[in-house]
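Two proteins follow. First one:
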Amino acid sequence: MTREYPDTVAGPYNPPPSEFEDREGRDIKVRRYDEGIEPLVEMYQAFKPEDRAQGIPPTKEPQIRNWLEQLLDDDCVNVVACHDGSPVGHAILVPDGEDASELAIFVLREYQGAGIGTELIEHLLGAGRTEGIDRVWLTVERWNTPAVALYRKVGFVSTENGNFELEMAARLTADGEAS
């Protein structure tokens, strides 16, 4: 399958670190993630079954650990949002083997709707651009209207309409542009 990407470069995005106050008045720090697996295992164990989409994150600790070991690989770009020193959101760019990366983002339910997802994605895309990533794509359940609106807000466009999932893509650099 040949994935289509928009011609227009999305952004601008700044790489982390960054600090901001979310809409609930909480101080949030966004940074590249390099702390090891334990803080993220704890965050993902707090996810409720209804907060999972497309089968992720996994539900049981051994599967969470295995999944995170793959995501924390040096080839992936990981950014985390922290409140009071603990992760409350995690976003990842995973290389797809076709000179592009797939985006995934997870924010704990009690932190959703406060602007954390927007900041997390924008800083992840800034970090990705810094790492030389040109094209990013994702899939989202089409009825997840808050997520679809967020992705559109940060520059993603719809590229394919499946029955249950919507594929979206963004370009981080112009063709031939040096990162």
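Second one, unrelated to the first:
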Amino acid sequence: MLRSAYIETSVVSYLTARRNQRDLIVAAHQELTREWWESRRRDFTLFASAVVIEEALRGDEMFANARMALIEQMRLADVTPAARQLAAQLLLEAGLPAKANADALHIAICAVNGIDYLLTWNCTHLANAAMIPRVNNICRAAGFEPPYICTPEELMVG
């Protein structure tokens, strides 16, 4: 049985964006994301959510359409009342700022739907080593196993 991976909006954006010529770190992340997509995506059942769709539709219409074309290849995880409640709890107890509501929802959707991995390049609120232990404790206290939150680079080899 395939493991499951939730593809957060930053990953979808890196896959569809023009190659960054000015920021070497962003360019490297884009390349690693494309490499993961080509070599590893078939090893997982891929998920997105209505939250990813909402974020992906923002901005330039051409790029939004490209992001949606990728998302259409994935299953949609349910944004349930339990996920919304867990997200609210994460905002209150994990130290996430109020503006990180979508980030808390990404985590909660994964936990409530039993998704194994949350793939992201958001290292401020998601793939953050200082934040993850608090997130994991809150999810487990609420009766859910948290997703393993990581970047595509961390999930390159399996």
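SUMMARY FIELD: Strands lie at 3-7, 44-49, 75-77, 117-119, 148-150. The domain at 3-153 is CATH 3.40.50.1010 (Rossmann fold).
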